[in-house]
Design brief:
alpha/beta; UDP-N-acetylmuramoyl-L-alanine:D-glutamate ligase; nine-stranded mixed sheet; 9 helices; 20% strand; globular; binds adenosine-5'-diphosphate; binds (4-amino-2-methylpyrimidin-5-yl)methyl dihydrogen phosphate
Length: 266
């Protein structure tokens, strides 16, 4: 049977991030994608102009409709916006005993808009982290979650240890915003694995975090180990950024035709 994955995230009208990036990633990796929308953003390559949260009942109903009928191989969680939505998502996933959960703790868009109210941080840590197989903060998100700034590889390791103590089975701290190579670290509570690629010199990185976490979920849905899933996701995001392009007037999107860059060896 085709592997399946569910994304629980916000909608990005410009198609570069959020639900749209997640579904494109699932498809490109050969996984059947399903979605539960938490919030609708009016967004383009220049920024976010409006956000409308959906009410908790329709969010829970979307998740329930999928689980009641279809086997869910993996779940990716992106923009949650509020504490109430975060609690609803956690409770509904608990109800259906969801497995292989990837939490991307989305906080601020690349264009600077808040996608998570600061008061939702506690619900995220207390309700969702203990259920997560993997949590994938970038440097800023890791810093907000642990309460110290994360700027170096040493800081990334310290942050991964502190976040692992909150309950997730694995932490991936993403170094997309580091100086030098694009280096991410995976921590399982015992040891670190580094995933490193040359930094691609581009401004077109809209949706990189969404794409990377969805690619990890796709791998888990395909029964890869966490390390294999992160390796596949790193290969995928590197290709998607390499082939990212200028669309609109601002930060353009990544490219989701995996076959194209697979054949080209990136
Ligand atoms: N310019 C770049 N070149 C190569 N890889 C990058 C680049 N920017 C981000 N990445 C990679 O993309 C993934 C997403 O990371 P990041 O951009 O830090 O996330 P976010 O979108 O949450 O800020 C990571 O694997 C990171 O290493
Ligand atoms: C709906 C939505 N979800 C997530 C992001 C973050 O994406 P990124 O930080 O990669 O721009 C976004 N811009 N919009």
């Amino acid at each position: 049977m085709l592997a399946t994955a569910l994304t629980i995230a916000g909608s990005d009208s410009s198609g570069g991030a959020g639900i749209q990036a997640d579904l494109k990633t699932f498809s490109a990796l050969g996984v059947f994608g399903m979605s539960a929308i938490t919030a609708i953003t009016a967004q383009n390559t220049l920024g976010v102009s409006a956000i409308r949260e959906l009410d908790e009942a329709i969010i829970a109903a979307q998740i329930a409709a999928v689980f009641e009928d279809i086997p869910v191989g993996a779940v990716k969680i992106g923009m949650l916006s509020s504490a109430a939505i975060t609690r609803t998502v956690a409770a509904t996933l608990r109800q259906y005993q969801a497995k292989s959960i990837v939490v991307d703790p989305v906080m601020i868009s690349k264009s600077g808009s808040r996608l998570l109210h600061p008061e939702a941080m506690t619900a995220l840590k207390e309700q969702l982290f203990p259920m997560a197989d993997v949590v994938t903060p970038n440097l800023f998100e890791a810093g907000e979650l642990v309460g110290f700034s994360v700027n170096t590889r040493n800081d990334m390791e310290e942050a991964a240890r502190a976040l692992h103590a909150l309950g997730p089975k694995h932490i991936v701290v993403k170094g997309g915003h580091l100086e030098g190579a694009a280096c991410d670290i995976l921590f399982d509570g015992h040891s670190f694995v580094y995933f490193e690629n040359e930094r691609i010199n581009t401004i077109h990185t809209h949706g990189t975090g969404c794409t990377f976490s969805s690619a990890i979920a796709a791998g888990l849905a395909q029964k890869l180990s966490i390390e294999q899933a992160v390796r596949q996701a790193k290969y995928y995001i590197t290709g998607a950024i390499t082939h990212g392009f200028s669309l609109g007037h601002g930060v353009g999107p990544t490219h989701h035709f995996f076959e194209l860059y697979q054949k080209a060896g990136l």
